[in-house]
Each structure stands twice: as structure tokens, then as C-alpha cells.
Amino acid sequence: MPPLSVIKGSLDKVAFSKGKSDLITFYSRECMAERVRQLSRGTGEFREMAEICPFRGIRYNQGIFKDLDKVICPPYDVIAPERQRIYYEMSDYNAIRLEHGIEQPWDNATDNKYSRAAVTFEQWLKEGVLQVEEQPAFYLHDHYFAYLGEKKKRRGLIARVRLEQWGDGIYPHEETFSKAKSDRLQLMRACQANFSPLLALYQDSSGEVVKILSETSQDEPVMELANSDEGHTVWAVTEPKFVQRISELLVAQPLHMADGHHRYETALAYQEERARKLACVNRKEAFNYVMMSLVDFSDPGLVILSISRLVRGIAPSVLAELENRLGKLFTLEYIPLGKDLIDRLKRGVIAGAFLGVLGLKPQFVVALRQRQDAAIVDMLPGSHSQAYRNLNVGLLTDTVLGGMLGLAPDSGNIAYTADIDEVCQQIEQGTYQLAFLLSPPRPEMVKAVADAKDKMPRKSTYFYPKLPAGLIINSLDQL
């Protein structure tokens, strides 16, 4: 077996012996990652890597739509019913009709929001509302937004990534709920497409990927749109030298799933369904891939919010004893709830506090700090890694919610939100009895848990802002 560097060099020569369009086709259909994996199998090298390819994305026809902001929408999991209506009214061609259609009273097995999305998708393609890219491309995406009064930009590379089981080059960091996966699977079956990308993180230790993407961003973008909250600039990267070099640099990079665990597991289920229907599967079919936006762990625009837990259904006797039980593990500081404190909570839990509790005492937040004489970590299940044991969300889930309150993460008595204002409102209105406020995990903490082959509890992270639906669409029926 020749050295891996020789194998890669040979592939480079093959690629460069082709013309521009052939080169792109070479990468889109073969994927350098797959070629390297096939040739290096058995050497012990590159067993854990993600396979990344350009693809022919589907985009809104800008000859028809001058204001693209009117036709994109957030992903399904952050769209409240009232916002869903607003996106419907924003444009007859808003991607909400594909991503998260309205349910109707007369829906049945053959006429429902999924079948309507499929009909709409096909119609928009036939009418030219949506157009397929002429040649495979990576899509460089700059996502502009404001966070706590500061303007930020998160840079991602939208690509097709070959589906693999968790741990084979792609790593999860948190548990998932089954209900969300069922919804997305039905949509995928009906439309055979990804309407929004998953978000995954990679480690650009050398800084070479950042350098290449920076050079690419000097070219003319294919899309620019903005509203009062967010902006998007997109470049279609088809230049052979950039396609090749990006493929080279990312071929051996493990990917850490940030946002989209449900959709990734749904894509795996869909892949299995499609494969069973074929007499021969060559692993090159489009359903073997999923669309992702790849972001560097050190990107300055990478923002992670914490997700608070709203709790109800606690028996009065249990609630009455909670302060005493918490006092055995933590010191409790009662802080009056006011505008200044709320602003501080939006930036993270009070400095030095393990977590905050709202609802134990009216109009006060109780800051919990670990007692030196209490071995809280020893109360965690032994199956978890040290990285997990360092997380406040893990300790909250296992010792407080589970141990003291007897609530499972998927209990109907627990709600999740990243909005502190909503937390305060729900407690004030009495909809929920308690709220547990957490400081956001740092990117390196998320990576450490995933690298340890462990998972954070469900709804542990909120990568802000969410990637929109409809910006780039990935067909699961063509390469």
C-alpha cells in the first residue's frame, strides 16, 4: 500500500487532467474523501472522517424574486403557530410551505401538509420559481446578525456530507426526541429534499480553510439579502482549485453536530428506507448525503445560548422540601428580580453560580453555588464521561430534575426555551412553577463531550441564530 500522501497526489493529478466542468463532476460524483478512504482502507489511517462534496443546489430564481428575504423562513423547530401564519402571508412563495406547512382539519393519509409540500415543491421547480445550479458547488455563507447589541458574522460552508452512523467521522453532542424525527421523516419521504442545512463544526487548526474561504469571499456573491434582524451573503464556489483544496482540507476532519441531530437521524432512517428498495446500492445515490453548513469551532460568530428548563406538575409536598434539599448541595443566594438582573441573565447565569432558579420565591432568582463539602459529581451515573460531569446541564438533569423532582427529560411537565423574557413571563403567569437557568456551554465543552463519545442531555444547546430554510435546497434525487 503506497503512503497516503502518494495516493492523494495521484488523485490530484487525475483531477487536474480533466477540464473545469469535468473536475467539478469528478468531485461531486466520486468525492475525494471516498477515493482516499477506499485506497487507504486497512492502513489504520483516516478511519474517522467525514466525506464532503459540492452539489447542484436549488435556489430561488432571482429574476423573479428581487427580495429574497420575503421567501426564506426559520427552520421548523423554532416557528410558533402565530409566526407560521406571518410567513405564509409574507409571500405566496415563502419556504414555510415546504419546511413547515399548516395542518388542516381535513388532513388525512394522502392529503396533508407533507403531500402539499411535495406538490408545491414540484410545481415551483416546473414553473422556474426554483432553479437548479448548473454545476456542483460549495456554498460559502456569511450569516450576519446582532447579539446583545453587538454585530456579528458567522461563516459557514454549505456542502453535501455523506451519511455515516454516529461515531464514524460525525459525532453527536446531545440526546434527541423521537417525535421530531417522525415529523421530518414524513416530510423527507414526500419531498425527497433538504430545505435547510444542518449545522456542524470542524477544527481548522492550521487556519488554511479560513484563508481559502476569505479569498473566495472576494468574488461576486450569488445572493445578498437582509432584513432588520439578519443578513445573508452567499457565494457559489465552483472554481476547481478551491473545490479541490477545500475537499483536501476537510476530507480527514471529524464533524461535530451542532444543530440538527433530529434531522441527521431522520436522514439515516430515510437512507435505509431508500436503500432497501434498490436491488443494488452504490453509495453514490443522492439519498446517501445530507446538506450541512460547516463552521469552524473558532469562528468569532459562533454563539451558543443556554436553554432554560420550565417545570410544572410538582407536588406541593415536593416543592415545599426543595429548598432544604438544594441547600444540602448548594449555597443559596436570593437576588431580587429586576431589569438589570434580567439583562445579566441574558448574558449568562450570575457569575460563579452553578445555576439560577426562578419561582422558589416570588420576584427573586435563587443563585445556586456548589458547596465545597458536597460531592455532587459522585451523584451522577457512572456511565458518563468526565466531560459530561463538568456540565451544569448534566448535573441539573440528573441530580435536581431527575433526583429531587423525579422528572424525566421528555416529561410533558418540562418545557425548554432560550428566551429569558419568556421564562419570566411563564413563571409570573403561573403557567410553570419553576424555571432553571443555565450558563451557556462553551464550544470546547461541546467538543469534549462529543469526543468522549458521550451525549449532553436533550436541549442543552441553542446555536444562535438558526440557519434559514429556503436559502439553498438539496435534492435527494439527483447528484
Give a quick rundown of the structure.
The protein is α+β, with helices and mostly antiparallel strands.
How are the secondary structure elements laid out?
Elements: H1 4-16, H2 20-30, H3 32-40, E1 52-53, E2 58-60, H4 81-90, H5 96-99, H6 113-127, E3 130-132, E4 138-147, E5 150-162, E6 170-171, H7 178-191, E7 193-194, E8 198-202, H8 208-216, E9 223-226, E10 230-237, H9 240-250, E11 255-259, H10 261-276, E12 289-296, E13 303-305, E14 308-311, H11 316-327, E15 330-336, H12 339-346, E16 355-358, E17 364-370, H13 386-389, H14 392-404, E18 414-417, H15 420-429, E19 434-437, H16 443-451, E20 462-464, E21 474-475
Parallel strand pairs: 6-11, 8-12
Antiparallel strand pairs: 1-5, 2-3, 4-5, 4-10, 5-12, 7-21, 8-11, 9-10, 13-20, 14-18, 14-19, 15-17, 16-17, 16-19
Helix pairs in contact: 1-3, 2-9, 6-7, 7-10, 8-9
What is the tally of beta strands?
21
Radius of gyration: 24 Å
Structural class category: alpha+beta
The tally of structural domains comes to: 2
Note the main sheet: 9 strands, mixed
Mean pLDDT: 86
| Beta-strand residue fraction | 15-25%
SS field, number of helical segments: 16
Q: Ranges with pLDDT <50 over ≥5 residues?
A: 1-47
Quick one: overall form?
globular
State the helical fraction.
Answer: 25-40%
Give the termini separation: 31 Å
